[in-house]
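agent> Task received from the user: take the single chain below, predict its 3D structure, and emit structure tokens. No templates, no multimer pairing.
agent> Plan: (1) validate residues, (2) run structure prediction, (3) serialize to tokens, (4) report one or two observations.
agent> Step 1 OK, no nonstandard residues flagged.
tool_call: predict_structure(input=
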Amino acid sequence: MKRTAAFTLVELLVVITIIGILISLLLPAVQSAREAARRVQCGNHLKQMGLAAHNFEFAKGHLPPARVLALNPNKEEFTATWAVFILPYLEQQAAADLWDMKKGYYDQTAKARQFAHSLYYCPSRRSGPALSVQGDNINPNATPSQNIPGAVGDYAGVCGDFGGIAHDKPCCYGFEGTLGSPTESNGVIVTARGKAGMGASVIEEGLTSARIRDGLSNTLMLGERHVHQEGFGHRTLNGIAYGDGSIYNGDHNSFYAPAGPGFGLARGPQHSAGVSQFGSSHPGTCLFVFADGSVRGLNVSIDETTLGLLSQRADGQPIPGDAF
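)
tool_result: status=success, residues=324
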């Protein structure tokens, strides 16, 4: 009687073991390839936002402001942020039209506040759409039930560094950083003033590319904002400041951040919370679009002094050759 060839149980177990080993060796390579693709996609998001900012300047005569301080009768309020201003130049005119530029964030319709543009999300962090859970309220410590939700985002404008500001807050934490004031922020994405009673519809003074005297290729414009992975959607949670409010809310600081001494890059998604800073979910690097529209990654261990030089638009200091 003729016997048919077959694997013994031992041989079968050996084959299965070898296949398992090969798969375990391949998984890191597959994950690395996926992360590389996500990083390229994230850089493309920043590239498109940088291009939109320059198209805004071409149309309006100045770069998009971080936000606008509207000196309306009997009150001061911050209106739309840069993320609203560039929507028409990201092929989202319909979403921009939802905004009443004479009103602040809290007075907008839910449809306007909650429009979530896919470009405002880093694919390594979250795919979106995502809304704020807590903190988008005049009182940042309000309960979640009092929250006025809006779309969050993973990118922020670079307002400069802490230097030269004679206050106990960073350069862009309030009125002290408004363009044209004695203590205006020294970055590229800077708060502007709207004419009295006209909100963001008429801006008194906007920053132009000509005022970036350190060179467009040497100055940061927008970058990946640090959000601790335990605080998604929360400005504060259990007494810890996470700062993940709506990217459209000019009343808080979820849309811009300083960069420099005391405000270095976060080392990863679990880096300590409590400080508004830039940071990434990409291992070892944080992506920025520079004022010339180029996208580059900075090592998360970059010297904070060098980071401050890159964030200032007109400090007159050379950038060290090992900055990139």
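agent> Step 4: summary for the user.
The first strand starts at residue 67 and ends at 72.
agent> Done.
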